[in-house]
Amino acid sequence: ETGVTQTPRHLVMGMTNKKSLKCEQHLGHNAMYWYKQSAKKPLELMFVYNFKEQTENNSVPSRFSPECPNSSHLFLHLHTLQPEDSALYLCASSQDRGYNEQFFGPGTRLTVL
Amino acid sequence: GENVEQHPSTLSVQEGDSAVIKCTYSDSASNYFPWYKQELGKGPQLIIDIRSNVGEKKDQRIAVTLNKTAKHFSLHITETQPEDSAVYFCAASSPGGGNKLTFGTGTQLKVEL
Predict the structure, then answer these.
(1) How many CB pairs (< 8 A) connect A and B?
(2) Minimal CA–CA distance to A32: which of A87, A96, A89, A88?
(3) Surface of B (67-96) touching A: CB under 8 A
(4) Residues B63, B81: Cα–Cα separation, whole Å
(5) Which residues contact A89 (CB under 8 A, 6 or more apart)?
(6) In this complex, is the C-beta atom of A102 within 8 Å of any C-beta atom belonging to chain B?
(7) Is B93's pLDDT higher than 70?
(8) DSSP structural state of residue A83
(9) pLDDT (tens digit per residue) in A26-77
(10) How far apart are CA B101 and CA A68, in angstroms?
(11) Which chain A residues have a beta carbon less than 8 Å from that of B98?
(12) B85 with B111: CB under 8 angstroms?
């Protein structure tokens, strides 16, 4: 275990549904990240939070809405998604935004019908 | 922005042989280069990293080399074992990037008995 947990592990939703992904880190880190992993493509950074403040939004569509209530928890709220949003969504954390190891969770496999 | 290319996309070796994965990057300012291993059903896990002030780093059977002039870095795995079978990702980060990693597309390594 890496110390980063994600729930649910699998999610199937329709395009009109609203759902949320949850990430929790037990490492005492201050920075948290959301990545999208699609087949045959590099991991795409979506959002970065440092000390609960969003410091990076990598031109992500507004149908993805992140929330970071504290340094240990990170959410990704989903609404009116498209089939092309189907992917593995990975959460990661690091001590801070310096050049430190990023610890990844196991991911949530999302399928949009 | 940074662009990282990774080759090959798939690599099959016999157990005990060596495996080499190569990456090139475009931003000459990049100075941190981690390698991640992703096993089936898990998130990526850091296996080794190198900073631009070092040309080579070794950790048991794994080594990474960096050529700043040519802007490429490589992962070397010696005496491969079946448990080395996984997807390997290289990444690069530049100063001021705030630990924003740009990933390669991954290499599926298969170690055959």
Answers:
(1) 56
(2) A96
(3) 89, 93
(4) 15
(5) A6, A21, A34, A35, A36, A37, A76, A107, A108, A110
(6) yes
(7) yes
(8) G
(9) 999 999 999 999 987 889 999 999 899 998 888 999 999 999 999 999 999 9
(10) 20
(11) 48, 50, 55-56, 97
(12) yes
Q: Which amino acid is at B62?
A: I
**In chain B, which residue's Cα lies nearest the Cα of A38?**
B105
Interface test with A, best of B32, B40, B59, B99 (most A CBs within 10 A): B99
Residue B46 φ then ψ, to 5°: -65, 130
Residue B98 has pLDDT above 90, yes or no: no
What separation in angstroms does the CA of B28 have from each of A22, A41, A100, B25?
36, 23, 20, 8
Please state, in angstroms and rounded to a whole number, the distance separating the CA atoms of residues B7 and B106. 8
Does B96 score more than 90 pLDDT? no
Beta-carbon separation of A90 and B43 below 8 A: yes
- CB-based contact (8 Å) between B98 and chain A? yes
- Exposed/middle/buried for B21, CB within 10 Å: 0-12, 13-18, 19+? buried
Task: Provide the token pair at A55.
Answer: 């410091």
The DSSP string of chain B is ---EEEE-SEEEEETTS-EEEEEEES-TT--EEEEEEE-TTS--EEEEEEETT-SEEEETTEEEEEETTTTEEEEEE-S--GGG-EEEEEEEB-TTS-S--EE---EEEEEE-
